[in-house]
Design goal:
Helices cover 74% and strands 2% of the residues. By secondary structure, the chain is mainly α. The protein has a single domain (7-201), classed as Four Helix Bundle (Hemerythrin (Met), subunit A). The chain has a two-stranded parallel sheet. Helix 1 packs antiparallel against helix 2 (48-71), helix 1 runs parallel beside helix 3 (77-100) and helix 4 runs parallel beside helix 6 (162-201). The model is unreliable at 1-14 (pLDDT under 50).
Length: 204
């Protein structure tokens, strides 16, 4: 569930992007993709333990694939495609599952979906100007990790015992923080894109 659609892994490109397919980061991203339908089935079928395990595993592998790619120079074009696709599918499936279960209101899902649509427009504008990717902003990372903590806690909070009540309060705290940062980061990406476009328009 990262903030990396149309953005590069990391704040700067430290390694060349290759055409390699079989790499550890790509395998991790592919495993996350395979887990999406299983996760959606688990959450809709009220198999919460399995859904929690898959959601936590998604967050861990999301962190590891980027870390490994940067550390060992394994950034690839396929990885830049698989990673954000897997992240977005988990966001969508989680919001749908939590919405159907009544754990989160549909208007909150709409707010997060609207941000995804907004970023899609930003990315399309960037590609029209020959800018295929934007560096990941710190706030984007903070928003992503906040939501990564929020979703499992909200799912764990679907109960009446003390653990569920504590998890629900913490989950909503991360949800509000993450949602706010998600939109702020989106606006900053648009400002950043505008600066790139203006810089390209300045005569050499």
């Amino acid at each position: 569930m990262s903030d990396r659609v149309g953005e590069t892994r990391g704040t700067s490109v430290s390694h060349p992007v290759t055409d390699r397919v079989l790499t550890v980061p790509n395998v991790l991203s592919a495993l996350r993709l395979v887990g999406v339908p299983v996760f959606l089935w688990a959450i809709l079928a009220h198999h919460d333990a399995l859904a929690l395990v898959l959601l936590v595993a998604s967050g861990v592998t999301d962190y590891l694939d980027g870390k490994i790619a940067r550390r060992y120079g394994l950034e690839s074009r396929l990885g830049q495609l698989l990673d954000p696709v897997a992240d977005r599918l988990y966001i969508v499936s989680t919001l749908v599952g939590l919405g159907v279960r009544g754990i989160v209101p549909w208007w909150l899902a709409a707010v997060l979906f609207a941000r995804e649509a907004y970023m899609g427009v930003v990315i399309l504008v960037g590609r029209r100007h020959g800018i295929p990717a934007l560096p990941v902003h710190f706030l984007g990372k903070a928003a992503t990790f906040s939501l990564l903590y929020a979703f499992p806690l909200l799912l764990l909070g679907d109960g009446t015992n003390t653990v569920a009540e504590v998890a629900r309060v913490a989950g909503w705290a991360f949800t509000w923080w993450g949602t706010g940062l998600y939109w702020v980061a989106g606006i900053l990406y648009a400002v950043q894109l505008r600066q790139y476009i203006r810089a390209r328009e300045v005569p050499a």
